[in-house]
Design goal:
Elements lengths: L2 H9 L1 E4 L8 E4 L18 H17 L2 E5 L9 E5 L2 H9 L8 H13 L8 H7 L6 H14 L18 H8 E4 L11 E5 L16 E4 L5 E2 L5 H4 L9 H18 L6 E9 L5 E12 L5 E4 L6 E9 L1
Antiparallel strand pairs: 1-2, 3-4, 5-12, 6-7, 6-12, 7-9, 8-9, 9-10, 10-11, 11-12
C-alpha cells in the first residue's frame, strides 16, 4: 500500500452504519488538519470527544465490553468484528481521532459509535465528523501509514511496542524509518522519502509548539522541473515484480536521468502530507528540490503555493 492509497482510506473512509449480514456503509471524507498539544500526556477536554467517551463508558461498564464492525485498510472487502474488553486500549482509540492521531479504523469506530449513541445520524455523519474536528496532524498520517506498511494485516489498534504509530514523534520516525540522504543524486525514482522541517541549527523540529512537520513521498513519482509530467506518465507503474514492472522502471529511470541532465533541472517528487498551510489538511502535491547545503539541508518548494521549507530527507528502507 502506497502513501496515496492510505490517504484515500481517509478521503473516502467507509463506515459501517448498521448491523446484520450485509450492513449499510457510508462514505465520509476525513481531510482536515488537526493538531492538539498533548505535552505531558494530558487528556484535553473536547466536547465531541467527551460526549462520545461518556456514552461508550456507560455501555462498556454495562455490557463488560463494546463490539464494533470495522473495514480494515488492508482489505476493503472485509468486515472485521472487534470486541473491546479492556478500557485502556479502547479509550485511547476513541481519543486519537479527535487529536489528529487516529488510524482509518479508529475513525470508523468513533463514527460508528456516534450513530449508535445518538450523537450523529447516517445522514449527517459528514457534518458530525467536520464539526467534531476529526482530522490528522502531520505525524498522525505518516506514523499511521508506516505502521500499516510494517504490520500489513496485523492488529490496527496501537500498542506500546509499535515501532511506528500516529503518536510517534518526528525524530523517532526518522530514527527507525531509513537512512538520511544529503545530495540530489541520492533521490532516485524508485525511493520513498520522508522530509522533516529543520530549525535554524539544522536539527529536525520535534515539538508541537513550535510545530514541526513531516511528509512522505509517493514511490515512482520522482521527476524533474524540465519534464514535470514524468511521474504522471508512469503513475500506473505497479509496485510489484515482473517483466512489465522491470521494463517500465528502466524506461522511467532513463527518462528522469535525461531530464536531469539539462542545466538548471531540479528534482521533483509527489508528496503526501497533512498540513496547516493554507488550511489544506491531508493533501498530495508536487515538491521541487531547489538546493542542498554542504550539511545536507534541502530547500524545497512546496506544491499548492505553500511556500518553501528547509528539511532533512530520509529514504525509507
Amino acid at each position: 500500500m502506497s502513501p496515496l492509497d492510505y490517504a484515500n482510506r481517509y478521503w473516502s473512509l467507509q463506515v459501517v452504519t448498521g448491523e446484520g449480514t450485509n450492513p449499510p456503509v457510508r462514505t465520509v471524507r476525513i481531510h482536515r488538519y488537526r493538531l492538539v498539544n498533548m505535552t505531558g500526556g494530558a487528556d484535553p477536554s473536547l466536547p465531541a470527544k467527551d460526549s462520545l467517551v461518556s456514552a461508550a463508558k456507560k455501555q462498556f461498564l454495562k455490557d463488560g465490553g463494546v463490539t464494533v464492525l470495522v473495514i480494515p485498510s488492508y482489505n476493503l472487502s472485509l468486515r472485521q468484528t472487534v470486541q473491546f474488553l479492556d478500557w485502556g486500549p479502547f479509550g485511547a482509540s476513541l481519543l486519537r481521532p479527535f487529536i489528529g492521531k487516529g488510524s482509518p479504523e479508529e475513525v470508523q469506530v468513533v463514527l460508528q459509535l456516534a450513530i449508535r449513541y445518538g450523537l450523529a445520524t447516517e445522514a449527517n455523519l459528514q457534518k458530525y465528523a467536520d464539526d467534531s474536528k476529526i482530522g490528522l496532524d502531520c505525524n498522525g498520517f505518516v506514523g499511521n501509514y508506516l505502521r500499516q506498511l510494517k504490520d500489513a494485516d496485523e492488529k490496527w489498534i496501537a500498542r506500546s511496542s509499535d515501532t511506528f504509530s500516529g503518536s510517534s514523534r518526528i525524530r523517532d520516525i526518522f530514527q527507525h524509518a531509513g537512512r538520511r540522504i544529503r545530495r540530489f543524486e541520492d533521490v532516485t525514482f524508485d525511493g520513498m522519502y520522508l522530509m522533516g522541517l529543520v530549525d535554524g541549527s539544522g536539527e529536525v523540529v520535534n515539538t508541537s509548539a513550535p510545530a514541526g512537520h513531516i511528509t512522505i513521498s509517493q514511490p515512482f513519482t520522482v521527476g524533474s522541473t524540465v519534464v514535470p509530467d514524468i511521474s504522471d506518465t508512469f503513475a500506473g507503474v505497479p509496485v510489484v515484480g515482473g517483466p512489465l514492472q522491470a521494463t517500465t522502471t528502466l524506461l522511467y529511470g532513463a527518462a528522469v536521468a535525461m531530464s536531469r541532465a539539462v542545466p538548471a533541472a531540479r528534482p521533483t517528487l509527489k508528496v503526501v502530507e497533512s498540513t496547516a498551510a493554507d488550511d489544506n489538511g491531508l493533501v498530495s502535491s508536487t515538491y521541487t528540490l531547489l538546493s542542498v547545503s554542504q550539511g545536507g539541508i534541502f530547500t524545497v518548494e512546496r506544491g499548492l503555493g505553500m511556500g518553501r521549507l528547509k528539511v532533512q530527507i530520509f529514504r525509507k528502507s
